[in-house]
Structures are given as C-alpha cells and as structure tokens.
Amino acid sequence: MIKLLSYLRPHWKAALLAPLLMLLEVAMDLLQPILMASIIDRGVMTGDFAHIIRTGFIMLGIALVGIFGGVGCTVYASVASQRFGADLRYDLFKHIQTFSFRNIDEVKTGSLITRLTNDIVQLQTMVQMLLRIFVRSPLMAIGSIIMAVVISPKLAVILAISVPLLFIVMFLLIRMTLPLFSKVQQKLDRVNTVLQENLAGIRVSKAFVRADYENRRFKTANEDYTQTAIKAQRLVAVNMPLLTLILNVSIVAVLLLGGKDVIGGSFDVGTLVAFINYVTQVLFALSSVAMMLVRFSSAKVSADRILEVMRIESEIRSPETAVTEIASSEDNRETAAAGSADGARFGQEAGKARLGAVEFKNVSFSFDPGGAPVLENVSFSVKPGQRLAIIGATGAGKSSLVGLIPRLYDVTAGAVYVDGVDVRDYELSALRQRIGIVLQETILFTGTIRDNIRFGRPDATEEEVIEAAKTAQAHDFIMATPNGYDTVLGQRGVNLSGGQKQRLAIARALILRPSILIMDDSTSALDMGTEARLQQALGKLMEGSTCIMIAQRISSVMDADLILVMDQGRIVASGTHRELLATSAIYQEIYESQFGKEDVQVG
Fold first, then answer.
1. Domain boundary at 513, 535, 554, which?
2. CB within 8 A of 200, min separation 6: which ones?
3. Which of 513, 534, 556 is the endpoint of a domain?
4. What backbone torsions phi and psi does residue 38 show, to the nearest 5 degrees?
5. Residue 139 domain-assigned?
6. CB of 590 within 8 A of CB of 390?
7. How far is the C-alpha of 89 from the C-alpha of 110, rounded, in Å?
8. pLDDT score of 580 more than 80
9. Within a 10 A sphere around the Cβ of 412, how many other Cβ atoms?
10. What is the pTM of this model?
C-alpha cells in the first residue's frame, strides 16, 4: 500500500494543499461551540442582544472561512486522487504489455480487467478519503478532546471510557471484514471472466442456441459475487448502530453529570452545550475513522491484487548485453542483391542483406514447467530466402513451434537460432521487428483499415499500405467498401468476413518488410484461387526473405523448399513435396484425403 502511495509524489502540491485547507476547516469548526456557549451564557442568559448579533456575525465569518477550506480541500484531493489513479492505471497497463504469453495464460483476462478498473477505482477513492476525511476526522477528534478537557476535566472522563470502546469495535470490524473483501474481489474477477468470455463468443453462443446455458453460468457467478458482497456489507452495517449507541450513551452520561453541576450553579448552560458538541464531534470523528478503516481494508485487498500483478516478471526479456545488430554474411549479401524489383520498391535497398536463416537445435517445449512436452527434440534449419512449410494434424505442435522464433514463448530445452544467434540473446524489439507474423487467430482493432494495416509501422506511406494490401489480395475488397482505406472497422473486425480479416492481417505483417514471414494457417478462410494469387504475389515480394507457412492444404505447400511433417510434437518426415510423397506414409495419407488415392502416384 505504501509503495503505491508513491504515485502521489508527482502531484505533491495538490496532495499537500488538500490537508492544509482541511486543517483550516477543522480549526474553524472547533471555534463554533465556544462561540455558541458565549451566545448562550453572555447573550441569552443576560439579555445582551448586541452580543448575540456580534458573536453571530463572527460565527458566520468563521463558517465562510471553513467552507473555503472544505471546498478547496475537496478540489485538490480530487485532483490528486484522479491523477494518482491515472498514473497507476497507465503503469499497470504498461507492465501488462511486458507479459509473455505464459504470463497471460496464467492471469485470466477478466481478473486483469478487474484490477485495471475496479481495484484502481477503490484505491483512487481511498486516496481521496485519506486527503479529506482521514485528515479531518483525527484532527477533529484530537481538537475536540483537548477543548473538552479544557472545559471540564471531570466530564472528560466519559470520553476516556467511550473512546477505547470505539477503538475495540473498529479493530474487531476490520479483522472480520478484511478476508471477506478479498473474497468479494475474487468473485468479481469470476463475473468479469464469464462476461468477457460470453461477449467475445456471443456469436458462437447464438449459433449453438446456448443463450440459456450462458445465462445460467453468468447468474451463478453473479449470485455468488452478490452473496459474498452482502455478507461483507452486513458486517459493515453493524458498525454505525454500535457507534451511535456508544455516542448516545455518552451524551446521556454528560447530561446527567453536567446537568447536576448546572443545577448546582458550578457549570454554565452554554458551557454544557459546548461540551456536548465537542463530545459529539469526537465520537462522530472516530466513527468516520472507523468507516475509513473498513474502507481501508477493502482498498488494501485491491492494493495487494495490483501489486501481485506488478510483481510478475516476464521470463521473456532482453538480456543485459543484447544483440541489436546482425552482421550479414557474403551469402546473404548475394541473396539480397538478387532481390526482385517488387522487393526493392517495397523498401528493400539493392545490395542490402536480407537475413532470415532459422535453425532449431534439439528443441523441446512445454507450456508449464515440468508439464507434458508439446515439442520434443525438434531440429531443422532454413536458409535465407527459402520457403518452409509445416503440415500435420491438429495438436501436433505446429503453432507452438513457430511461436518460439519471435520468442512468444521460450524453449524448455535446446535452442532456436536466427541468423546464427540464439533468439534469447537478441534485444526483443530488434528480433521481433525483423519477423512478420500472422497468428492463427486473426485479431483486428477498432479503427480504420489503414490504421490496422499500419499497426506495426505507423510511419508507413500510403504507397506502402496499398502495396501490402495488393500483395495480400485485399486491395479490391477494401476499395469496394464505402470509404476505402478510411473505412472504420468494428470491434475485432466484425464487419468483415473471415477471409477478409485474414488478408488484412497478412498485409499488416507484410508492411513490416520482414526478413522472416510466419503465416500460421492464415489462408484457411481463402478460396483456392485467391490463395494461389496470394502465393504468387508473396513469391515476388518476399524473394530473398524467409517464409514459414503452416497450412492444412497440401496445395498451399507444394512449392515449398522444405516441408516438415509433424505428429505429436515431433518431426516425423521432412523434404520436398515429391520426396515426401515417395517416402512419408503420413504425408501420403494427407495427400490422399485431399486429392484422392489415384493421384498419389502422379504427384
């Protein structure tokens, strides 16, 4: 909690002015009962109307000064707390961006959303209360106790009994509510997770007529959260009646003892009224502190949850002495010099090395440490400019394999090399800027088509955007939209078909001018004619660069320089299309399923 309060440091002026102005308001409020006592004893009791008017105007002036202090405190406390929340939210979001895929798998998206929103709002509210109520209430309690002792040390004994009782109630309340508030936030995590999953997959839910099931699932999570929250609030609700009881008993005791002294003539009526006011202020101030501490217990839970995320360190990060530049070899220079005119027009200078050698050496990988391996002892190499295709059954480990190249995950054993350097030795951004990747799940963002294509290179020119779209076979359908490249896409590109989204994702990868292009089953929604034109355009544009393609259709990989056949996390065969058709039973089986048995010999 203390660590998070350091976010107030940049806004120290507002954070300092708020309590100072509150101090002014408290000082004015403490003067009011004394002036009221003066009106009663020296004005009402003696019939001095002029004294009543004069003192009344003084009280009015003091009240106006107090209002200035209170309003000023509220304004500066709001400014400080809002800026505190904004800075914390930004830093938390920025930290989440450093997470590896494994970190994101471990921390649920719904939980992250809760921490970025509800938990930070809880802390924001807490900071505002700290700068206002937590300043006002203790100062008011201490000031009122001092004034009460000055007026009557004998009656102040009542406070010596009631104040400790209040503290005991506060302690017990906080001790009981803290674990409950922790459960409340966990239940809210669950609600957000169910909500996020449902909204993301609402089309699937409708298609399979599962609305009733989703309603029941959300209702269960929602009711679970509600019941836990009610249980916590029940304990909080006990607080005010107990504090009010202690307050009323204290006032009755003051009236009994003080009234006796007033009747005996040893105590003035106005002074007794002032004393009762101070007792009331003490007990109400401490009641506010009690409520604050209950809120504090809730905010502490939120702070712990935020710090839990802040402490997560991605295992995938750049080494201290990271490789940022790659020395080119003579072979690579020759390859680059032979690049096509299309590649040169797309931003590759003649004679500039276009590296892209990829090598896997005895690579094994599992998602969880000690878990079942997804890849086992995988070894192969690809030279710059070659086309590598990977084919195999669902769950064979194809996507996991290509994800190791840009370090979306790290190997469990072995090593992956890009241009002769272990990918773990690269500076992350330097590595990933050389790799264009089209993921299996096509994700587009709300914004224009142009912005989505330029996502990885915001400085790309209009000509480069159009060239990438043409290569990805997306230009024609883009121009058919109402506003062309300025057409605004809905959330996740909902106003596009699956094939259109895939082509935009390919254009987004191409505009990076990558040395290595990875396409993870990213043409599955394209018809064979469109895919053939795409492959032809890619062949021209990516000449001199390495292309790695995961595909389900053999027609997509026939022209590859090397085809890997994967099964259960292992490479079971490798070679060209003709070689595999002659030697690999699995490849033959896939080919037969797509082209027919009679065509196997022809291949």
1. 513
2. 492
3. 513
4. -65, -40
5. yes
6. no
7. 16
8. yes
9. 19
10. 0.72
Please report, as a single letter, which amino acid is at residue 274. A
Burial zone of 68 (CB within 10 Å; 0-12 exposed, 13-18 middle, 19+ buried): middle
CA-CA-CA-CA torsion sign (592, 598, 600, 602): negative
The conformation of residue 459, written as its DSSP 8-state character, comes to: T
User: What share of the chain has pLDDT > 70, as a percent?
Assistant: 92
More confident residue, 414 or 544: 414
As a whole number of angstroms, the distance between CA 365 and CA 101 comes to 14
> What would the DSSP string read from start to end of 187-208?
HHHHHHHHHHHHHHTHHHHHHT
- Residue 155 covered by a domain: yes
Per-residue pLDDT band for 338 (boundaries 50, 70, 90) equals very low
Position 335 pLDDT exceeds 60: no
Supply the mean pLDDT for the chain. Answer: 83
Length of the chain equals 603
| Number of alpha carbons in the 13 Å side-chain half-sphere of residue 138 | 10
242: which 2 tokens? 């107990």
Number of domains in the chain: 2
- The rounded distance, in Å, linking the Cα atoms of 50 and 38 is 12
The region, left, alpha or beta by phi > 0 then psi within -120 to 50, assigned to residue 271 is: alpha
- Between β-strands 413-418 and 421-422, what pairing exists: parallel, antiparallel or unpaired? antiparallel
- CATH number, domain of 466, equals 3.40.50.300
Q: Tell me the backbone φ, ψ of residue 413, rounded to 5 degrees.
A: -150, 160
Matching residue, tokens 């001199």: 544
The token duo for 383 is 């030279």
- At 244, is the pLDDT very low, low, confident or very high (cuts 50, 70, 90)? confident
User: Which amino acid makes up residue 67?
Assistant: I
For residue 241, the model assigns a pLDDT of 80
Spatial CB neighbours of 116, under 8 Å, sequence gap ≥ 6: 89, 92, 93, 96
Q: With respect to residue 332, please indicate whether it lies within any of the assigned structural domains.
A: no
Q: Are residues 169 and 303 in the same domain?
A: yes
Reported confidence tier of residue 331, pLDDT bands at 50, 70, 90: very low
Tell me if 413 sits within 8 A of 363, measured CB to CB: yes
**Among 502, 530, 513, residue whose Cα is nearest residue 465:** 513
Number of H-type helices and E-type strands within the chain: 22, 12
Range of the domain at 458: 436-513
Measured from the Cβ of residue 369, the count of other Cβ atoms closer than 10 Å reads 8
Residues 399, 210: Cα–Cα separation, whole Å: 30
Q: Which of 18-32, 157-171, 219-233 has the lowest mean pLDDT?
A: 157-171
- Give burial (CB, 10 Å; 0-12/13-18/19+) of 490: exposed
**Per mean pLDDT, which of 175-184, 231-240, 317-326, 369-378 is the most reliable?**
369-378
Main-chain dihedrals φ then ψ at residue 547, nearest 5 degrees: -120, 125
Contacts of 364 (CB under 8 A, 6+ apart): 373, 375, 376, 377, 378, 411, 412, 413, 414
Rounded CA-CA distance 305/298 in Å is 11
Please tell me the chain's helix, strand, coil percentages from 3-state DSSP, rounded to the nearest 5. 65, 10, 25
159 class by beta-carbon count within 10 Å (0-12 exposed, 13-18 middle, 19+ buried): buried
148 found inside a domain: yes
Burial class for 496, CB neighbours closer than 10 Å (0-12, 13-18, 19+): buried
Name the helix (H) or strand (E) containing 364. strand 358-365
